[in-house]
Amino acid sequence: MKQRIITAIIAAAIFLPIVIIGGVPLILLAYLLASIALYELLKMRKLKLFSVPGLISLIVLWIFLLPNQLQEILIVLKYSKVEVALLAILLFLTYTVATKNKFTFDDVAFSIMSIIYIGMGFLYFIEIREAGGLIYIFYSLFIIWATDSGAYFIGRAVGKRKLWPEISPNKTVEGFFGGIFCAVIVSVLFVLFSDIDASFLELGIITIFLSIFGQVGDLVESALKRHYHVKDSGRLLPGHGGILDRFDSLLFVWPLLYFFHLI
Q1: For a 10 Å CB count at each end of the chain, is N or C smaller?
Q2: What backbone phi and psi angles, to 5 degrees, belong to 237?
Q3: Which phi and psi (to 5°) does residue 162 adopt?
Q4: Which residues lie across from 230 on neighbouring strands?
Q5: What pLDDT, in 10s, does the model give residues 8-35?
Q6: Where do the TM regions start and end (predicted)?
């Protein structure tokens, strides 16, 4: 626990100032985090980042992460992100033939889903911040931290019924609802003490929704790790695992938060 707390403090001391600054530093941070997360995810399936399909995945991810104000690059080339993704699929499928099915159709699907899964979350992290939504970035961070902490401590204190033992044996139903409760408390504090543009009822409903799907995001990554027999996605953050372990919930929350059109 001590190592976990120290890592969290150091990570927050680096991450939060960049979020506050925004602009190019934040975009570069998002690119770095997304690239590491892609590496971790491909590694689960024993796919190397520094390989033909790995580099294709990385390049497409970087294109996918281009925020709205930088999409002129694609406009000049007369391509859309969808067209780039379709071209990547053709290249992946061609590579299955070139390798005589050592890189399989399943690997193609995994690579494409990895790009979308990681890219979607970090793209909307950039878009929310660049739209002037600093308060909403902090809101998302605090409700997920509250959800995780509430689920852990309430689950340990009173948890009896397993939530989804086949995927995450330590999570409990009581912890699940405890996490939602703690997130709602945090949302009340945001309405009272920040300039967030939402009523108690509106933000409360949205918080319940985001807290649930944040926990779903956590379970999705747990399912991936269980399927590929991996304990942690990486070792970059001592006591926490990898980047994917820390951002699994937020990869679900940031797109949904953006889709609510609060910003």
Answers
A1: N
A2: -115, 95
A3: -70, 135
A4: none
A5: 888 889 999 999 999 999 999 999 999 9
A6: 6-37, 49-67, 73-96, 108-126, 132-154, 175-194, 200-220
Range of 218's domain? 2-259
Amino acid sitting at position 175: G
Question: Cβ(187)–Cβ(141) under 8 Å?
Answer: no
C-alpha closest to that of 57 among 109, 5, 123, 133: 109
Higher pLDDT, 174 or 169: 174
Structural domains counted in the chain = 1
At 226, the amino acid letter reads: R
Q: How far apart are CA 263 and CA 10, in angstroms?
A: 29
User: Residue 114: CB partners within 8 Å, gap ≥ 6?
Assistant: 38, 41, 42, 57
Which residue type, as a one-letter code, is found at position 43?
Answer: K
Q: Assign 3-class secondary structure to 149-189.
A: HHHHHHHHHHCCCEEECCCEEEEEHHHHHHHHHHHHHHHHH
Here the tokens at position 170 are: 């330590």
Structure tokens at 178: 């405890």
Q: Which two tokens stand for residue 52?
A: 């033909």
Cross-strand partners of 164: 168
Kind of pairing, strands 168-172 and 162-164?
antiparallel
End-to-end CA separation in angstroms for the chain: 36
Q: What is the pLDDT of residues 39-81, one digit of tens each?
A: 999 999 999 999 999 999 999 999 999 987 777 677 666 778 8
Please tell me the predicted confidence (pLDDT) of residue 159: 82
